[in-house]
Amino acid sequence: TMLGIIIGVAAVIIIISLGDGMNEMINSEFEKMGTNLLQVQIMDRGAASSISQEEMYALKEENPSLIAAMSPSVSCAAAVKTGAETLSTSVTGVGEEYLAVKSLELRTGRFIQYIDVERMQNVCVIGSYVDEEAFGGDGLGETLRLNGNEYTVVGILTEQADNTSYGGDNAVYIPYTNATRLNGSASISQYLFSAAGEEQNAAAKALIESTLERFYGDDEHYLVISMSEMMTMMGNIQGTVMTVLVAIAAISLLVGGIGIMNIMLVSVTERTREIGIRKSLGAKGRDIRRQFIIEAGTTSILGGVIGIVLGVILATVAGSIVGITAKASLTAILVSAGVSLAVGVLFGYLPADKAARLNPIDALRYE
């Protein structure tokens, strides 16, 4: 009788726990990127000219109340070597404010400076993974070769992710002027802005878009992405998906409720003579009704408790398998317990009412 409730409650607990864990992980990743981050992608697509980095810097300097920092970002396809070993890592050309834009921290040394960009000096800042893999954790002052050119490591970033080859710690940063030279193209297609605060996100985005629209004439040549808006959109999508999944899991609770109702109907039939005896001794309809409702509710709540325990255990196991922290919230547990009790009472009412309406004489004659 309780199996349907156990499975339904456990399924709801598991889905909610995994969903909350996934939300926390995604929000954490967005926060690492910076919720105030605005990414500008320049596509050009036949434009007569492209906006320059000087104009982008001027936009930032003229609007300090909306924009806190700005940096070009140039992906560079360069072979990175240390000694005879080739490193599999990403090389990005950045400006002196990239550290503030991306909310990164230095473990030791310094970051790219204005003089490095201006003079195209062969210096680089590396992530903690590159430092461990290439230099055994002591890479400050050492050299890397990018397409055969020697670059001195002037700074090492604090570990920001999981320090693996797939994380943000596997990175090399150089002045963006050097990156454009290595790419053989002076054009810059990506700029990163940091809004002065969360309240200024929308206004900063609107300012950048209006500036680019004045320059290009239409929005076919650029794209401005707000991490804050993306975070909100992702939250809405996740909420919708979670609602659908919980609704699907709740079908098990409906099936469990029907199971309780059927068993209680059978119980009423089997105990018809007992009901007749109780009524003949003075029991009222409400007494009989209360008896069967309590039985149905007890069965349901007991199944709910077992389902909650099972759900919490399975959610923790499933979370560890997929690599997220899945903890059942107190709200999910209380809601599951309340729903299981409500299901028992709701589906137990019909059999209880049937029992309460039995004629004592007919009940006593029932075989």
Brief overview:
The protein has 367 residues and is α+β, with helices and mostly antiparallel strands. The chain is built from 12 helices and 12 strands.
Detailed description of the structure:
The chain has 367 residues and is an alpha+beta fold. The chain is built from 12 helices and 12 strands. The model has no long low-confidence stretch (mean pLDDT 85).
- Provide a count of the helices: 12
Shape: elongated
User: How large is the radius of gyration?
Assistant: 32 Å
Helix and strand sequence:
HEHEEEEHEHEHEEEHEHEHHHHH
Structural class, please?
Answer: alpha+beta
User: What is the strand content?
Assistant: 15-25%
Biggest β-sheet description: 12 strands, mixed
Q: What's the N-to-C terminus distance?
A: 25 Å
Name the helicity range. Answer: 55-70%
The average pLDDT score comes to 85
Q: How many strand units?
A: 12
Low-confidence stretches: none
